[in-house]
Design a protein that fits this description.
The chain is built from 33 helices and 25 strands. The chain is α/β, with parallel strands linked by helices. The chain folds into 4 domains: about 210 residues, no CATH class; about 300 residues, Glycerol-3-phosphate (1)-acyltransferase (3-Layer(aba) Sandwich), CATH 3.40.1130; about 180 residues, no CATH class; about 100 residues, Arc Repressor Mutant, subunit A (Orthogonal Bundle). A hairpin with a 6-residue loop joins strand 5 and strand 6. It is globular, with a radius of gyration of 30 Å. The N and C termini lie far apart (about 95 Å).
Length: about 800
């Protein structure tokens, strides 16, 4: 029998190799799964299939794993390299014959009892051909449906048509020694292994292909027949004096406008196209912490991806990454502005569902949309939506919109029969194609409506965009989150399912802030972002190449030695290498004189590059503040520095979505300060922390660091000085006056950051002043200058340049 199997394997190997392209998940088996390549490995597969074994053989060779076709030597005895749960189904009927897995596993456990040093790694491996979800209706495409154990004829068509879309998914190894130590006879332990493996492979299938596809008739019946939508239809008919049928027809139109029409073939085609696009415009896509999401999917969680929004590329990049990480692609909440032909239809078939920018007051639309979202949750579809509600024009995170989060929590309260986890996602780029249009919009130009011609024009401009970065943040288990913030939330399931509890709004607001903080917690430092950070702090936006390389090296070392978080990622290369790669993007001007090369920003690029600096500004805000305090005071006691940092930290936390609490922020600031001293960026002399000597190589890097926060401090000074001069002022008037004076400062002093006078940023700071009770509020709601706000103003004024102080006296 072994000879027959080997002969069959040899016969199909050559032709199949031409048809099969394997994607191994994960790529780093040792780090993510703990697989030890030096120990014996036995593979556990779902189906005894020659083509599955061939795909595994190709994957194993690329990963340095043992061949799945070579016998394993265990205690001087040959053991089969693979265990199989089941055989393929028969060609003429669906009967499936049992394999000899129970016999082989029992014998393996018996060997362990006879050899105390023996320990084999049993590695479950899922082989997937395509990603088609199950269907409730039969059709011609069932010929290549990825059934659990297809017969040889069906498998022939599967390999022929889906061989280029093969995924080999490895799971954490099971210790045969640990299993042999379980109570019970060897055959009982073997049967337990079979049961657990069956459940494992079922979950793997769900994680990569998702639940059964939702047919249109099921969609309409489920949403339009729900209690909440039925009540909304009746109310619509009564309010507008129309028939129930007409109101129901309107509800159906809303649902047709909203709902996705997912087609796995479109996603597969899109993956192939995007692979070519990414290879053309990016030098790579760096992905961090994907193992976290795979574990959630394997444990049966409903996953809600909540990414930041930098570019229209985000829609494509995140879905592409999720697909190639072996996870089911999510249904995506997209703005209705993207629903234009032919793009709208393609996105809909790729999983996009459309949402209007505003539907306040339209109760019928609200009921239909909310019921549709809850249906996706209950059916087990992963979902993706952008909490900012739109793309950031400044590179900073925008204040979150809470509508989708509120609907998510309401769905959980009504009852979702599986754990629900929000996964924050950080996305960053070396180049964002829309930056130039963002700057025009910030200057007052109207936003152009999306169209096919606009997209075609953008495609023609595709060029070297450097590296894309995508990091998955720390998940938030929503049930646990509600347990902490509203322990009795489950009681509301027994009440009116569509009522909105009074506690919901404050909990949603806090959740939204936590989500944004966790997005920034998972930030990725790109070459463009760190180069922009340095050059924008330099006078005239120019530095000698050697100085820039040294500054980058200092900044990278500081964040490696005192990491902002365990989820933030830092380039694993030298400052010189990073600068060399970034210069290839042609965003900087390089000139040379007798002393060496000078790197500078083109005038028109300086403003644009603030976008990339702002992506990572939160990582450097505390070291910048520490350096600014030391340089401004020309030396200060450590305790005084930390007290001033603690005073400003809550305001910076609110503005930049820092994830640490005030206590954690203070501890981190002290840790940073100690590391800056160790690196020589600061020095301790005569019980004071002082700037390094101007003759030292660390001086220029430290001085640049101190200038990184100056625009934030200038903005604080403007608002606080206006409040001080007025004494009493409305919030709207304070925002407006602050914006006008900030624009004046920007013009007079060449401050190139668009967010310096951005109303959202100014409004966020004023909100933080109120939250921290640094201003008083009278009975009319007017903001009142107070002793605390004056104390803060005095501290801030000491940290800014004299010429800015002089301008502030003109208020």
């Amino acid at each position: 029998m072994k000879r027959v199997n080997r002969l069959l394997f040899a016969m199909v190997t050559i032709p199949i190799k031409w048809l099969v392209k394997v994607k191994s998940i994960p790529a780093d088996l040792e780090t993510e799964l703990g697989i030890d390549k030096s120990k014996p490995i036995v593979y556990l597969l779902r189906t005894h299939s020659v083509t599955d074994q061939l795909a595994l053989k190709i994957s194993a060779a690329s990963l340095g794993l043992p061949k799945p076709t070579a016998q394993v030597d265990i205690a001087d005895t040959e053991f089969p390299p693979c265990l199989f749960l089941r055989n393929p189904s028969s060609l003429l009927n669906r009967k499936i014959k049992n394999t000899n897995i129970e016999e082989n596993a029992s014998w393996l456990f018996k060997l362990h009892r006879e050899n105390s040093d023996l320990d084999i790694q049993i590695v479950p491996v899922s082989i997937h051909w395509g990603r088609a979800p199950g269907k409730n209706m039969s059709g011609w495409s069932d010929v290549i449906a990825n059934q659990v154990s297809p017969n040889w004829l069906r498998k022939f068509f599967i390999v022929l048509l889906l061989g280029r879309d093969n995924f080999v998914c490895y799971s954490k190894p099971v210790s045969s020694r640990a299993m042999s130590n379980l109570e019970g006879a060897d055959d009982e332990i073997a049967r337990k292994l079979i049961r657990v493996a069956g459940t494992h492979f079922h979950r793997r299938q769900q994680a990569i292909a998702g639940p059964n596809r939702l047919e249109r008739y099921q969609l309409y019946n489920a949403v339009l027949g729900s209690e909440s939508v039925s009540l909304a239809i009746a109310e619509e008919a009564s309010h507008k004096k129309i028939t129930q049928q007409r109101a129901k027809a309107q509800a159906k139109e809303y649902l047709t406008e909203i709902a996705a029409d997912y087609r796995e073939g479109i996603v597969r085609w899109g993956s192939s196209v995007l692979t070519k696009v990414w290879n053309k415009i990016y030098n790579g896509i760096e992905i961090g912490h994907a193992a976290t999401v795979r574990e959630l999917a394997q444990n049966g969680h409903e996953i809600i991806y909540v990414p930041c929004h930098r570019s229209h590329m985000d829609y494509l990049l995140l879905t592409y990454v999720i697909y190639h990480e072996g996870l089911v692609t999510p249904h995506i909440a997209a703005g209705i502005n993207l629903n234009f032909p032919p793009v709208g239809g393609l996105l809909r078939k790729a999983g996009a569902f459309y949402i209007r920018r505003s539907f306040a007051g339209n109760k019928l639309y609200t009921a239909v949309f909310r019921e549709y979202l809850e249906l996706l949750f209950n059916k087990g579809y992963s979902v993706k939506y952008f909490p900012e509600g739109g793309r950031s024009r400044t590179g900073r995170l925008l204040p979150p919109k809470t509508g989708m989060l509120a609907m998510t929590l309401q769905g959980l309260i009504k009852g979702i029969n599986r754990p629900v986890s929000i996964v924050p996602v950080y996305i960053g780029y070396d180049h964002v194609m829309e930056v130039s249009s963002y700057l025009k919009e910030l200057k007052g130009t109207s936003k152009k409506k999306e169209s096919f011609l606009q997209i075609f024009s953008a495609i023609k401009k595709l060029k070297n965009y450097g590296i894309g970065h995508l990091n998955f943040g720390e998940p938030i288990n929503l049930a646990n989150y509600l347990d902490q913030h509203e322990p009795n939330w489950r009681e509301y399931r027994e009440q009116n399912s569509d009522s909105r509890p009074q506690w919901l709004t404050p909990v949603v607001n806090e959740l939204a802030t936590d989500v944004m903080s966790k997005i920034n917690q998972a930030a990725a430092i790109s070459g463009m972002a760190i180069c922009a950070t340095c050059l924008l702090s330099a006078k005239k936006h120019a530095m000698a190449q050697s100085e820039l390389e040294q500054a980058i090296e200092h900044y990278l070392t500081l964040l490696k030695d005192a990491p902002y978080s365990n989820r933030a990622t830092i380039p694993q290369m030298s400052g010189k290498e990073l600068l060399s790669n970034t210069l290839k993007l042609n965003k900087f001007t390089v000139t040379e004189d007798s002393y060496g090369k000078i790197i500078s920003l083109k005038n028109q690029n300086a403003v644009a590059l603030t976008y990339y600096r702002n992506n990572i500004q939160h990582l450097f805000v505390l070291p910048s503040l520490i350096a600014a305090i030391v340089f401004s005071h020309n030396g200060l006691a450590k305790k005084q520095i930390l007290l001033l940092v603690a005073k400003l930290y809550p305001l910076l936390k609110r503005e930049l979505f820092l994830y640490m609490s005030s206590e954690q922020g203070s501890s981190y600031a002290e840790f940073l300060l100690d590391n800056m001293l160790n690196m020589g960026l600061l020095v301790a002399e005569r019980n004071k922390i002082q700037p390094p000597s101007p003759s030292s190589e660390e001086f220029y890097s430290a001085w640049l660091l101190s200038r990184g926060i100056r625009e934030t401090l200038h903005r604080y000074a403007v608002v606080l000085t206006l409040l001080s001069k007025q004494g009493s002022i409305s919030r709207s008037e304070l925002e407006q006056n602050s914006r006008h004076f900030a624009e004046r400062l920007s013009s007079l002093h060449g401050l190139s950051s668009p967010e310096f006078f951005d109303k959202n940023v100014l409004g966020c700071f004023i909100t933080a002043l109120k939250e921290q009770q640094l201003v008083d509020i009278d009975e009319k709601g007017q903001l009142q200058h107070a002793e605390l706000s004056e104390s803060l103003r005095s501290d801030v004024i000491k940290l800014i340049e004299p010429e800015i102080i002089q301008r502030l006296k003109q208020i």
